[in-house]
Design brief:
Elements (H helix, E strand, L loop, with lengths): L3 H10 L2 H11 L2 H4 L2 E8 L7 H4 L4 E8 L6 E11 L4 H19 L6 E10 L21 H8 L7 E4 L5 H6 L4 H12 L5 H19 L4 H15 L4 H11 L2 H6 L3 H16 L3 H19 L4 H9 L2 H10 L13
Parallel strand pairs: 3-4, 4-5
Antiparallel strand pairs: 1-2, 2-3
Length: 333
């Protein structure tokens, strides 16, 4: 199963248009200058065996060097939610699998691989950067130990910890607009409190509007909203109020309202839960909060109408309020 973190990462950076700026931003300049990034392309599924296909957090591309040679360099991006002890060993297994596949299908000299470990958060501890760090008895003190260390496999991928970069540093990365929002979302949104979430969404508003004006902006915004719904540590009712207060009307008109998505999700949960009266009361409370967020304090007649409404009527009101500009349109005096 894809985690929501991996799903967002793969959706964004599995596309060459966003992968190229990411690679150029995180690689040392000398190394990034080796490649003709116009030739970057995802490795076709037929080039990857079934064992590799089962790996969920990886992206693999191939790119040509500037010297024009036919040798391909594979670019392997491994995405992890947090620091993992054996991440480098897993990556090494993947690299070896690529080489073994090459020997079976081509037989020529082995292609070079550029392994990149991109860690979303190292909150649980520092991520090992070299294979040598995983061996017992690190730090040889005798001549024999030095010789033993010398014959061990050497593997030191490029390791980037996103949460070790300040927000200013992340904004300084020359990423695509969508790529920058995805990096910010991966670092900031998981378990974010309501007050911080509201401030972040207001900060993102100009970027959302720019995405909304693009032909391919819809799926990008949908991916970000989907991630938000899955990882933010905010009750659904509170999240709806935040979105209603921070969403620009242009976005609401152009794309399906996030509040509408949440309401549909709530209705589906209600159907699965059966005819529990508690579910109806929850919808009634949710709708009351939405109306208060949009129109201010509710008069007694509105409270009375909400109290008398059944589940179907509450659902209808929840949808109609998205386009209403005044309470009287929903509850005629």
């Amino acid at each position: 199963m894809h985690s929501p973190h991996d799903a967002l990462f793969r959706h964004a950076f599995g596309q060459v248009a966003h992968a190229v700026p990411l690679l150029r931003a995180i690689l040392p300049a000398t190394l990034a200058g080796e490649f003709d990034w116009r030739t970057l392309e995802p490795v076709p599924g037929t080039m990857v065996d079934e064992r590799l296909k089962r790996r969920q957090g990886d992206l693999i591309f191939r790119v040509r060097r500037h010297d024009g040679g036919q040798v391909l360099v594979y670019v392997l991006i491994e995405h992890k939610r947090r620091a993992e002890r054996w991440a480098l060993l897993q990556m090494l297994q993947y690299v070896v699998s690529l080489w073994r596949l090459h020997t079976r299908r081509d037989g020529g000299p082995l292609p070079k691989v550029l392994p990149i470990l991109l860690v979303q958060s190292v909150e649980a501890g520092r991520q090992a950067a070299t294979l040598a760090e995983l061996f017992a008895g690190a730090g040889a003190s005798t001549a024999g130990e030095v010789m033993l260390d010398a014959v061990q496999p050497q593997f030191a991928p490029i390791v980037v910890s996103l949460d070790q970069l300040s927000q200013q540093a992340r904004r300084g990365l020359l990423l695509s607009l969508f790529g920058r929002l995805v990096v910010d979302a991966l670092v900031s949104l998981p378990a974010m409190r309501a007050d911080l979430l509201a401030a972040l969404l207001r900060d993102w508003a100009p970027a959302f509007l720019r995405l909304a004006g693009r032909r391919a902006g819809g799926p990008m915004l949908d991916a970000l909203w989907s991630y938000l719904l899955q990882v933010a540590d905010v009750p659904v009712t509170e999240l709806i109020v935040i979105l209603e207060r921070t969403m620009d009307p242009v976005l609401t008109r152009k794309f399906k309202s996030p509040a509408q998505q949440l309401l549909e999700m709530g209705r589906e949960e209600g159907r699965e839960a059966g005819r529990d009266q508690g579910v109806v009361e929850g919808r009634r409370a949710l709708l009351s909060r939405l109306l208060q967020a949009r129109f201010g304090d509710l008069p007694a007649r509105v409270h009375a109408a909400l109290a008398a409404a059944d589940a179907a009527q509450l659902d209808e009101l929840a949808v109609r309020q998205l386009d209403a500009t005044a309470l009287d349109q929903l509850f005629p005096a």
